[in-house]
Every structure is written in C-alpha cells, then in structure tokens.
Design a protein that fits this description.
Number of strands of chain A: 12
Pfam families (chains A, B): LacI, Peripla_BP_3
Protein name (chains A, B): DNA-binding transcriptional regulator
Oligomer: homodimer
GO molecular function (chains A, B): DNA-binding transcription factor activity; transcription cis-regulatory region binding
Radius of gyration of chain A: 26 Å
Order of helices and strands of chain A: HHHHEHEHHEHEEHEHEEHEEHEE
Largest interface: A-B, 44 and 45 residues
Shape of chain A: elongated
Keywords (chains A, B): DNA-binding, Repressor, Transcription, Transcription regulation
CATH architecture of the largest domain in chain A: 3-Layer(aba) Sandwich
Strand order of the largest sheet of chain A: 2-1-3-4-5-11
InterPro entries (chains A, B): HTH_LacI, LacI/GalR-like_sensor, Lambda_DNA-bd_dom_sf, Peripla_BP_I
Number of helices of chain A: 12
Distance between the termini of chain A: 67 Å
Largest sheet of chain A: 6 strands, parallel
Structural class of chain A: alpha/beta
CATH superfamily of the largest domain in chain A: Response regulator
Chain lengths: ~325, ~325
DNA sequence: CTGAAAGCGCTTACAG
DNA sequence: CTGAAAGCGCTTACAG
C-alpha cells in the first residue's frame, strides 16, 4: 500500500515545484485559484494520498495520542465507549488514538508504554485510575497527560470526571423524597476516588435530611484487588440500597432474589453508570447516566492544548450525569 | 514531549558518526562491542528515545495497522478482546494497532477510513462482516487486508474464522448423545456467514443421526438490520435449542422463563461464543468458547506477511473452539 | 570497524 | 504568485 505518488510527482506533471503543490493541497495562500484547482484535480486523478508520516517528521509530532486503560478496567465495554468518542473527537485535530491496555505487571514495575519510548505518541489520555507511583513516573518524565474518569491529589494534573458526588447526592435525595429513611450504600469506600465521592454524595444527602449514617449500612462490595465479594445484607433489611455502580446493583439484585426478596416491593435499589448491567436486572435499574461523549470531548481538548502549550493547566472538570428513571424504586 | 535528544547528539558527545550510533542501538554488525556498550550506556544516560516516525519515513511504512470494526458490532466487548490480543501480537513486529469504528454511514457511502488517505496505516484487519461493496472498494484500491471472524466468497482474501461449522456440529452431536431428538436452531440463517455455517453444522449433525430438519424448528432471531426480534417458540416445545450465539441464548432463556418453562428441566439450551451472556443466565449456558487469542495471532501474522509481500495469499483459516460444559443441558 | 553521502516526503522561511 | 534551499531523524549502500 506504499503510495508511490508524491507531491513531487504531481508537481512534475504540471511543471511547478512541490512547494506550490503543498500550498495548493493545504489551501494555503500564495497560489492562484486557477493553479490550485488544477493541482487538486490532478491529485485526485493520480490517486495521490497525503503522507502524514512526512508531516509528522517535519513537525516533530506523531499526531497520535495514547489511550491507556489499566488492565483491570478493560473487561467491560464502558471504557470502549469512551475510546470511540475520543477517537471521533481526535479526528477533528487530525489526531489518531492508539489504545493500550496497561498490564498489572507493567503498572507495578513502572514500565512506561512502548509508544513513549518510540516517540509514537505526543501525549496520553489515562482512562481509569492508575497507581500513584505510576502517575509520578509520568510526571517525572514530563509526559503530557490528561486523566479521564478519575483524579488524584496531584492537583497540577488535568482530570475530567463525571460528577460522582452530585450524581449520587441527587439520586439519594430522590430516594428520600420517595419516603426512604433506611438507606444503605454498597461499595468499597477505600477502593477508588469515584466510589469515595459517590459515597460522600450519599452521605451529604443523609446529613441534609438529618438521617444518621449507620456503619452497618456501608456494605463492602470488593476486595483490594477489585474482585467482587459476596455481599453481606444487613438485618433488618434497609428500605433502599444505593449501589456505587450498576454491576454491583446487578450483583445485589441477584443476592436479594436468592434470599427471597423482591425489588422494589421489599426494598429499592439504584445504581450508577447506566451500563449494560442496569438493563439486565428484572426490574431494570434506576441509575445515573454518565455523559461519556462530553467527557471525551473535554479530555481531547485538554490534551491537544497541553501538547501545544506544555504549561497549560485546566484543572479538574466535573461533567454532570443524568438520572435515568426505571422500575427499581418504590414510593413508600 | 518532543524528544530533543537524537542519535546525532549521542554521536557528537562520543565523537563518532550518527551511522555508528544507529548501528549500535539497533545491534547491527560493524561496531566494536566496546563502542556499542558505550553508546548504549550514553543513550540511556541522556534519556534518548528512538524516533519511530523517522524510521517510518525512511522505510515508507507507518508501522501501524488499522483495525476496523463495523459500528453495529462495536456494542459488546467481544471484539475488544480481539483488539487487545491483536495489539499484543503486533508489538512483536514493532507495529501498533489503530482501532477504528466504521460508521454505518461511511460503510454505505463507501467512504474509506481516513487512515488510508493519510497513509497512516500499512494495512487493515477487518473485524466483523462488512458489505460486499465495501470489500470491493478495499480490493480495488489494492489495500492489504485480512478478515477476522468472517469471510465472504472473495476467495482471494485471507480470512481467519472460528470453526463455526464443526463447533455447532460437535455441540449438536453432544445433544443427540444426551438423548435429544427434537432440536431447534435459533438464528437468522440469511444474516451472516457465521450464523449460516453454524446452522449447517447443526444440520450436518441431524443428517448424520437421521433426524429430519423441521422447518418450524428454525427460529428467526433478528431482522435484516441485525436487531433482535421477539422469538417465536414452537409448539410443542423442542427438547433442545441450539442458539447461534450466547446473547440469543440469553434472550431465549428469558423468553422461556416468561412462558413458565424451566431450563434444563423442560428443555435444554446451548449457545456459542462463551461471552458474558453465557454466564448471565440461570443456569449458565453450555456453549463453545472461541479461541480469540489464536485467531488474533494468525490474523496479525497474515497481515504482516501481506505487507511484506503483496501477493502472499494464505486463504481461509478455521480455528477450533472448545465446548464449555455448564448446566443448561439435561440428559433425557 | 567506521563514516560521508543520499534520501524517505513533506513544510517553513526566505528570496525573487 | 512561485520556487530553491534546508531540514525533520533516521537507515541503506557504499567506500575506506
């Protein structure tokens, strides 16, 4: 597929220089409209294809962005959706996305992606929480980067996250409005910043409604490695469960069913993410839809800015989600 | 992140030419071991990063492969798994994969990917069936390509597919061995080559066991657009259903449950793919696991071969899957 | 074992 | 409005 036709070939056929062809094809000034049209027509006729590699070479930019997904998040298709929106947005800047799954091993051994060592990318979008040490590594190497769907205490790094805090806050408010007072939270609150913030949103709602936080109502859902564990259902049964994500909502529904409970008759359940798991339960889950498209758009804007201007700092951006009402909540 | 350190910088520091540095860093002959070691050490010390773009430029190869997934298959994470294995395999050849979702619109309008027009890739792996006209377009443009997980009647194109035919053939044999005689097939047999072959494997098993093919036992599962439709369950109920994929097995199980039937007590169900849907049913589905890793490996080998030698033709390769026994089949 | 020269296909800065 | 020159960072083929 090596394109044998170059700008020079076009130039020679017409009897101009390759500089003129370059200007014409890029719609730059300094070529008469007549000549420009003639060059463009001939380019098509000759089957000319632009050589982006040559441009990269000249500009010292690869026009690729590495999209890094830590291995443990690569299972679902949630991040794949992000990736699709990211690549769509990147196209507008003539950029391409190279998806890389960061293996647990490479993350532990602080092994940077090969794209970095081969100057194959101009920067990275990190999709999903990575270890603090790995972040330090990226920072120390002065690698342009943007965090998507998580953040850390490195205040100088741009992050785009869904508004976990307000999302769950509003969802819990909704449960309270429906008459619920005994509301449990399901999630390991030491696991990721997302879960922590969702928990805090839940807690804020309790505080505002003078409902006390019951230690027994914080139900762990996964171990340190992120593997889901068997859920311990409190006795007596809370009237509602706020799950930190839809998949855990799905697990909870199965657990409740196996114990003979019906949702929403015996208790209500809400999730977060609006991913496939929220539609696999019976009844389907009321949940919060993450605005993947908008988040991806902002992430791309930020990384492109960052490549142009190393010192550009856009900070932490929260993108609001939307509550999706389904049938897993009962008014009491 | 522009790497300011070049081979020439290293060369000047040591007092040799950049040719020697290139040879040393690439472990080529013609440099004394002593010098080689010195150059390598200095490269690390200076934080040198190889510039793959310059190599691409020189060789006229982008060292990228486009992985094209038609939009309608981009929903699940089945193809994402392929993508992961593909990129892992590509690394061994110093290649990178650029994933592109082919929109229904671009497919219809015969719009080639932008990576092609910008010479960003050296070839394509097409992951999932695309229209015949689009295939013609790729062929007419002389684009190196390999088909993964589907094939067509274009006999000159390399395809790597799972052994659909024998997979379902063996699975149906297993049902017959368990005493089943009234076996239905669920799938639109005019939809894709995969479904067709799976159907034919089912039919072969019937033929070999002198079981007649009952027209009413071929149950359509999707319309022309690939959207799943409501399943019509035959009356009387067959003793077993062979579903063309796990997701349809999942749909069928839901349908059967809603009608008051129990699996496997009232009838048995088997699927294909061993994807997430096979584990979401209760009981979980007996199915055929597709050997994604091996298929990806072969696809990468083929496309790399093809880039080196345009006329290399490897044909159609069938990769065997493995039956996964779970609890959705009863011996009768 | 080592290096000068040429070239991959563009674009930028400058001269005319 | 048009073009000659230089350069991006490598590698190949050849000469010494």
């Amino acid at each position: 597929m090596k394109s044998n036709i170059t700008m020079r070939d076009i130039a020679e056929r017409i009897g101009v220089s390759s500089v003129t062809v370059s200007k014409a094809l890029n719609d730059k000034e300094g070529v008469s409209d007549e000549l420009k049209a003639k060059i463009k027509a001939l380019a098509i006729e000759m089957g000319y294809r632009f050589n982006a590699v040559a441009k990269s070479m000249k500009e010292g930019l690869s026009y690729n962005i590495g999209i890094i997904i830590p291995e443990r998040f690569s299972g679902g298709n949630f991040y794949l959706k992000f990736y699709q929106h990211i690549t769509t947005m990147l196209e507008q800047y003539s950029y391409y996305g190279i998806l890389q799954v960061l293996s647990a091993e490479d993350e532990r051994n602080l092994q940077l992606p090969r794209t970095y060592y081969e100057s194959k990318v101009d920067g990275f979008i990190i999709l999903g929480q990575i270890s603090s040490k790995y972040i330090d590594l990226l920072t120390d190497n002065n690698i342009p980067k943007v965090f998507l769907d998580f953040y850390t205490d490195h205040s100088d790094i741009d992050s785009i996250i869904t508004d976990n805090f307000y999302g769950v806050y509003e969802l819990t408010n909704y449960l309270v409005k429906e008459g619920h007072k005994d509301i449990a939270f399901v999630g390991n609150i030491h696991s990721t910043s997302s879960i922590q913030d969702r928990f805090l949103g839940y807690y804020k709602s309790l505080l505002e409604h003078n409902l006390s936080l019951n230690e027994g109502y914080i139900i762990n859902d996964r171990d340190e490695k992120g593997t889901y564990i068997d859920l311990e259902i409190p006795n007596p049964l809370p009237s509602a469960f706020v799950c930190n994500c839809d998949q855990v909502g799905y697990n909870l529904m199965n657990k409740l069913r196996s114990m003979g409970y019906s949702v929403p008759e015996d208790c209500s359940v809400v999730g977060f993410d609006n991913d496939i798991y929220s539609t696999l339960t019976e009844p389907q889950l009321t949940t919060v839809e993450v605005n993947i498209e908008e988040m991806s758009k902002v992430a791309v804007e930020f990384i492109i800015e960052k490549i142009k201007n190393e010192h550009k700092n856009s900070g932490r951006v929260l993108i609001k989600g939307t509550i999706i009402h389904r049938d897993s909540v009962k008014k009491i």
